[in-house]
């Protein structure tokens, strides 16, 4: 007879009251594969921890977003927000699906060029553009979204010096009825800053103001904020066209669409709470429909949403190192992926799944990373089935911001792979090594 | 001044081309040389050509007609005839001078008469002019040209002149079969000679100029020969009475004015018997005045036949060629391609009545409701991964198409709005108010479009409102006989719902990512409406725009955008090549190419034959390219001969834009379905005003717009 596997005892407090109607099913739901590729196979081949992206989900997301907008409005473009995830393969996938590039620094601008994005399909955002970067952008006929007066002055100077007419848009911030109202970036609408800037452009006639840009914030769960934003921006565009005679041809309404992640302060999960692309699209296009533009002057819409397109396509695969009982009695499971790889764990309760299906005995666990730092906590409290060393855990919705904001700290940054639509695996980025680190140090 | 001299030169050169209805410079030069086989008449022809064209330039006649040799070819013929008929003396010089003026007057007169009927006046001016002169001169002992020598018979010309082509008497020619030698002699009599060698040279020129024209002339001649034999006419008459060239000229004219086809060929044979009678009749008739008939039969019968074709009401073959082409081959190939390529120009441009990608869930003659008198209708839905809804599909709001804007398909007036019918629950249908909420737009008398099953209270238009194509009318709903949300669309003959439908195509839409320029959607098709362009595109050419092109092969070139007759073309300043183009609905397309193929403009034409200029979305398209634009092998020469019977080869242009802004275009040549040649171009928009074209052979072409 085969020897039975050891199962550690589990203490669970039983609360003798009636179960509430919102009582949650605490059975574990396993995920053992991504798009048909087994997780243990992935670990065997690429090691652990490992970032895994799903091409299928990425394409599904962008197509769904496009479908939601394009069936409601004739002229909608998406611009891939580089800072959200600038792995070349990811960027190129979005470019392949027709996205422009939205960059916020000189280095991102170069990266977009290297990804064969024509320079006139790059949107150059950001509050800190150097003179050299601006010059390169205007020579390449990129769309420059002006953030401040200083930049406006610099652009005018460059335009005169090089006899070019740069294409620009004014970044506007406004009160869309949400808190916090981002007023750090761009020119404020309500105080008249934005109009002043537009007037300046219109009178100096050195720049060609072809658009208006606004980004109200990030992870916005209220579609009404977009409705307000769209109304205000459309009216501003109308005024700029009719009163100042500016050739406004597009509205860039930024991004900020919430992904299906769950915010830490939120009781319900993001999957239940966050609006869909259809909800956002309905609010924005119906608001735009109410503004009557002169005949033949329909604005195109540009969106720079990043998070909602890529978050649920990324997974972090990691392995259990050990279990510990802390002094307060809580279970502490240590895994090999820490907060240096998962920056977003500071504000999300990432969904975590194990490979054990239908285990009824779930235990509240504090999930920690391998760093020798007290802050290295992936989840404060998550219900997980009993785990052993080397068991696989899958952390969901990690596609946005992590592979750009991750850092080399104590451990090295791991490999990134993509599960392609045809089931093949493609290595997007190799793991860092000590040699990589040493290469940059002074000899 | 230099400009006028240039026009003059061009007009004289092209006067020679026009002798065989050609626009090819080298044909003009070759025929010019051929006329000098008999130096005197050649000189006279040249003199008349120069005189008449010079006068026409001085009187600033229409520049287009001038440079195309329209005014000159009568003059050249007249000169040749006079040179052949009269001995060289002062009287001839005087006659040439006077007759040039007379000819110009006659041409002005004939043009005034014929222009109204849009028929060519052919060589009527020449005939009148020559008869006029002959009528005067044959009165022996008359006041003027006493020295004139005329043959005893009308139509018999003088052969006294010294000829360069003595080889014609060589015995080798005597062994030729009659039918061939007579063809050659008839051909040479176009230049008023009966010279077998001259005929042979002309036949070779004709063959190289156009295989189709050669085919037309040869077969027509064969038929005429056959008729002569059957009727028992004296064969002697065919070539030597210079009657034979009537048939050849009419065949040439028809191969030029009509699109070469089986029916055009048949027509050119059909008029032979008539022409034969006309030849005898005109000869007999004019004999009364002691005048030769020359090509009167050709002129009369051809003009009569063309006017018969003009009076037709139906549009059946043979078709008139719409443009004066360089050769009958160009004529055929352009017409063949344009018939499918520009079919949509014939229709009122209706676009799809929605934004984004939709699917036809029930098409024309659909199984459910689109039958009988109501067969030409469409049901549109939005489908993602084979499903029309998200979630469980229990509510109308789950359906992707629900609440999406419905647009006016074309310009018109809203004539009927029906509102107030509630949306059905999923699966239920309102059989009392069949059409639910609907809107009817009138496009013109007796032509309306109806969009039904709309959402209650969603109307963005009212009765009497003028709407533009693409204007939002209402939102898609689930009212009326509609168990699940969809848009019912139909063209119909009256403003009332329930009127029988009318079949009509949509133009310029995408079907599964591929452009359809004109078509009727079919059930199951995934359709996307074309979007307008948003950002600055390098293809927004404007009149007078200058651009420069640098290529590995041809160095620096400068192009300019020019407009003529309401159409635009890119003009290569150096070589004079023209690439005609049009821009509409976010599509840039080249329509035709003229001029040398050894320049960068030609490669730009091939690589960007048709491009969708809207930004972003990947697209592909496939379109036929006229065979004459790109020829690849010697076999083309042979294929031309059978081309009027049916095309055996094809040029296909395929373009695809998938990633970023790189356009991959291939031009494939297939003969009888087999690929024989392919060239690939990759065009990238380096900057908004710079295009870079790379060819498979490694050469690059860089175009900068200014």
Quaternary assembly: heterodimer
Our count of helices of chain B gives: 18
- Binned, the helix content of chain A reads 25-40%
Number of strands of chain A: 20
CATH topology of one domain in chain B: Ammonium transporter fold
How far apart, in Å, are the first and last alpha carbons of chain B? 30 Å
CATH architecture of one domain in chain B: Orthogonal Bundle
Q: How many distinct folded domains of chain A?
A: 2
Fraction in beta strands of chain A:
15-25%
Low-confidence stretches of chain B: 140-165
Give Rg of chain B in angstroms.
Answer: 32 Å
Helix content of chain B: 25-40%
Give the overall pLDDT of chain B as a whole number.
Answer: 85
Quote the distance from N terminus to C terminus of chain A: 62 Å
**CATH uppermost class of the largest domain in chain A:** Alpha Beta
Task: Label the structural class of chain A.
Answer: alpha/beta
Rg of chain A, Å, rounded: 25 Å
Q: What CATH architecture label of the largest domain in chain A applies?
A: Alpha-Beta Barrel
Brief overview:
By secondary structure, chain A is of the alpha/beta class. Chain A is 29% helix and 22% strand. In chain A, helix 8 runs parallel beside helix 10 (277-289).
Describe how the helices and strands are arranged.
The complex is a heterodimer of chains A (443) and B (706).
Chain A: E1 33-34, E2 37-38, H1 39-46, E3 50-54, H2 55-70, E4 76-81, H3 88-96, E5 100-103, H4 106-114, E6 122-124, H5 131-139, E7 143-146, H6 149-162, E8 167-173, E9 187-188, H7 193-204, E10 208-214, H8 223-242, E11 250-252, H9 270-273, H10 277-289, E12 300-303, H11 307-310, E13 314-325, E14 331-335, E15 352-354, E16 363-368, E17 377-384, E18 392-395, H12 402-405, E19 415-419, E20 425-429, H13 434-440
Parallel strand pairs in A: 3-19, 4-5, 4-12, 5-6, 6-7, 7-8, 8-9, 8-10, 10-11, 11-12, 14-16
Antiparallel strand pairs in A: 1-2, 3-13, 13-14, 13-18, 15-18, 16-17, 19-20
Helix pairs in contact in A: 2-10, 5-6, 8-10
Chain B: H1 2-17, H2 25-35, H3 39-58, H4 63-67, H5 73-85, H6 90-115, H7 124-137, H8 171-174, H9 178-188, H10 196-209, H11 211-231, H12 237-240, H13 244-257, H14 262-287, H15 296-310, H16 328-341, E1 357-362, E2 377-381, E3 405-407, E4 412-418, E5 437-444, E6 447-454, E7 466-467, E8 472-475, E9 487-492, E10 506-511, E11 514-519, E12 526-529, E13 546-551, E14 555-564, E15 567-572, E16 578-584, E17 587-594, H17 600-607, E18 610-612, E19 619-625, H18 635-642, E20 649-657, E21 662-671, E22 674-687, E23 690-695, E24 700-705
Antiparallel strand pairs in B: 1-2, 1-12, 2-9, 3-8, 4-5, 4-7, 5-6, 6-9, 10-11, 10-12, 13-14, 13-24, 14-15, 15-16, 16-17, 17-18, 19-20, 20-21, 21-22, 22-23, 23-24
Helix pairs in contact in B: 1-2, 1-3, 1-5, 2-3, 2-10, 3-5, 3-6, 5-6, 5-7, 6-7, 9-10, 10-11, 11-13, 11-14, 11-18, 13-14, 13-15, 14-15
């Amino acid at each position: 007879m085969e020897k039975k596997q050891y199962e550690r005892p589990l203490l669970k407090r039983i609360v003798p009251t009636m179960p509430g109607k919102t009582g949650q099913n605490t059975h574990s739901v396993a995920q053992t594969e991504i798009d048909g590729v087994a997780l243990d196979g992935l670990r065997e081949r690429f090691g652990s921890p490992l970032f895994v992206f799903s091409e299928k989900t990425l394409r599904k997301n962008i197509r769904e977003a496009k479908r939601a907008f394009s069936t409601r409005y004739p002229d909608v473009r998406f611009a891939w927000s580089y800072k959200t995830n600038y792995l070349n393969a990811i960027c190129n996938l979005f470019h392949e699906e027709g996205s422009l590039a939205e960059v916020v620094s000189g280095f991102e601008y170069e990266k977009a060029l290297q990804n064969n994005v024509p320079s006139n399909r790059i949107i150059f955002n950001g509050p800190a553009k150097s003179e050299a970067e601006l010059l390169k952008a205007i020579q390449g006929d990129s769309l420059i979204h002006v953030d401040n007066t200083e930049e406006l002055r610099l652009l005018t100077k460059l335009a005169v010096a090089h006899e070019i007419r740069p294409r620009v848009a004014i970044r506007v911030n406004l009160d869309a009825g949400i808190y916090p109202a981002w007023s750090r970036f761009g020119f404020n609408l309500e105080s008249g800053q934005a109009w002043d800037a537009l007037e300046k452009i219109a009178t100096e006639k050195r720049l060609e103001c072809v658009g208006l840009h606004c980004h109200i914030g990030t992870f916005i769960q209220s579609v009404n904020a977009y409705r307000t934003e769209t109304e205000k921006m459309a009216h501003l565009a109308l005024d700029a066209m009719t009163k100042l005679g500016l050739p406004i041809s597009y509205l860039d309404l930024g991004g900020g669409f919430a992904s299906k992640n769950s915010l830490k302060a939120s009781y319900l999960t993001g999957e239940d709470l966050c609006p869909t692309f259809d909800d956002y699209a309905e609010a924005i296009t119906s608001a735009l429909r109410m503004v009557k533009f002169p005949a033949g002057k329909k604005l195109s819409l540009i969106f720079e949403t990043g998070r909602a397109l890529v978050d649920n396509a990324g997974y972090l695969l990691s392995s259990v190192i050990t279990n510990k009982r802390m002094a307060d009695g809580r279970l502490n499971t240590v895994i090999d992926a820490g907060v240096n790889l998962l920056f977003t764990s500071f504000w999300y309760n990432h969904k975590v799944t194990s490979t054990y299906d239908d285990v009824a005995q779930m235990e509240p666990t504090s999930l920690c990373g391998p760093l020798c730092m007290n802050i290295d906590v992936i989840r404060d409290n998550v219900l997980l089935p009993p785990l052993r060393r080397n068991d696989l855990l899958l952390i969901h919705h990690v596609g946005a911001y992590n592979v750009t904001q991750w850092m080399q700290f104590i451990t090295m940054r791991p490999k990134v792979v993509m599960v392609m639509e045809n089931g093949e695996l493609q290595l997007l980025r190799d793991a860092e090594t000590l040699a990589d680190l040493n290469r940059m140090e002074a000899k | 001044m230099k400009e006028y001299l240039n026009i003059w030169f061009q007009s004289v050169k092209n006067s020679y081309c026009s002798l065989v209805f050609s626009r090819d410079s080298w044909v003009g030069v070759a025929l010019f040389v051929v006329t000098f086989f008999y130096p005197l008449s050649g000189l006279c022809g040249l003199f008349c050509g120069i005189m008449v064209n010079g006068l026409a330039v001085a009187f600033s006649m229409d520049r287009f007609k001038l440079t195309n040799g329209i005014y000159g070819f009568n003059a050249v013929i007249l000169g040749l005839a006079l040179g052949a008929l009269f001995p060289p003396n002062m009287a001839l010089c005087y006659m040439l001078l006077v007759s040039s003026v007379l000819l110009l007057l006659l041409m002005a007169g004939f043009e005034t008469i014929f222009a109204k009927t849009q028929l060519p006046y052919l060589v009527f001016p020449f005939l009148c002019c020559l008869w006029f002169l002959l009528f005067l001169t044959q009165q022996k002992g008359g006041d003027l040209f006493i020295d004139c020598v005329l043959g005893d018979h009308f139509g018999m010309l003088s052969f006294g002149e010294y000829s360069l082509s003595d080889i014609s008497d060589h015995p080798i020619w005597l062994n030729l079969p009659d039918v061939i030698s007579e063809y050659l002699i008839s051909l040479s009599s176009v230049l008023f000679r009966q010279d077998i060698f001259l005929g042979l040279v002309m036949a070779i020129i004709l063959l190289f100029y156009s295989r189709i024209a050669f085919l037309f002339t040869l077969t027509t001649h064969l038929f005429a020969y056959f008729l002569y034999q059957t009727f028992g006419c004296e064969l002697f008459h065919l070539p030597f009475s210079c009657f034979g060239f009537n048939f050849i000229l009419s065949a040439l004219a028809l191969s030029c004015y009509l699109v070469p086809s089986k029916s055009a060929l048949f027509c050119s044979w059909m008029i032979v018997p008539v022409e034969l009678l006309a030849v005898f009749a005109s000869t007999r008739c004019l004999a009364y005045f002691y005048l030769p008939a020359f090509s009167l039969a050709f002129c009369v019968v051809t003009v009569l036949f063309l006017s018969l074709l003009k009076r037709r009401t139906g549009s059946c073959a043979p078709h008139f060629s719409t443009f004066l082409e360089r050769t009958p081959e160009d004529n055929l190939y352009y017409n063949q391609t344009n018939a499918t390529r520009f079919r949509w120009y014939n229709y009122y441009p209706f676009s799809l009545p929605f934004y984004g990608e939709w699917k036809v869930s029930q098409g024309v003659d659909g199984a459910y409701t689109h039958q009988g008198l109501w067969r030409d209708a469409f049901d549109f839905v939005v489908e993602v991964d084979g499903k029309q809804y998200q979630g469980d599909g229990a509510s109308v709001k789950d359906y992707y198409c629900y609440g999406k804007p419905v647009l006016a398909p074309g310009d018109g007036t809203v004539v009927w709005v029906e509102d107030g019918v509630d949306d059905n629950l999923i699966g239920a249908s309102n059989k009392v108010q069949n059409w639910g909420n609907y809107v009817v737009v009138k496009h013109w008398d007796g032509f309306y479009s109806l969009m039904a099953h709309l959402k209650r209270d969603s109307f963005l238009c009212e009765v009497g409102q003028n709407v533009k194509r693409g204007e939002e009318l209402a939102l898609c709903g689930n009212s009326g006989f509609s168990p699940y949300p969809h848009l019912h669309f139909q063209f119909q003959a009256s403003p009332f719902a329930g009127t029988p439908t009318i079949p009509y195509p949509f133009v310029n839409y995408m079907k599964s990512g591929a452009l359809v320029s004109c078509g009727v959607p079919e059930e199951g098709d995934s359709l996307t409406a074309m979007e307008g362009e948003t950002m600055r595109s390098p293809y927004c050419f404007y009149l007078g725009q200058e651009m420069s092109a640098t290529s590995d092969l041809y160095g620096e070139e400068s192009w300019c955008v020019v407009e003529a007759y309401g159409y635009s073309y890119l003009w290569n300043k150096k070589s004079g090549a023209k690439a005609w183009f049009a821009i509409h609905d976010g599509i840039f397309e080249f329509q035709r190419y003229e001029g040398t193929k050894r320049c960068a403009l030609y490669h730009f034409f091939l690589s960007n034959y048709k491009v969708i200029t809207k930004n972003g979305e990947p697209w592909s398209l496939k379109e036929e390219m006229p065979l004459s634009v790109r020829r690849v092998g010697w076999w083309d020469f042979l294929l031309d001969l059978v081309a009027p019977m049916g095309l055996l080869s094809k040029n296909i242009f395929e373009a695809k834009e998938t990633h970023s802004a790189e356009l991959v275009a291939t031009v494939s040549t297939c003969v009888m379905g087999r690929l024989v040649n392919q060239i690939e171009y990759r065009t990238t928009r380096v900057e908004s005003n710079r295009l870079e074209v790379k060819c498979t052979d490694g050469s690059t072409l860089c175009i900068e717009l200014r």
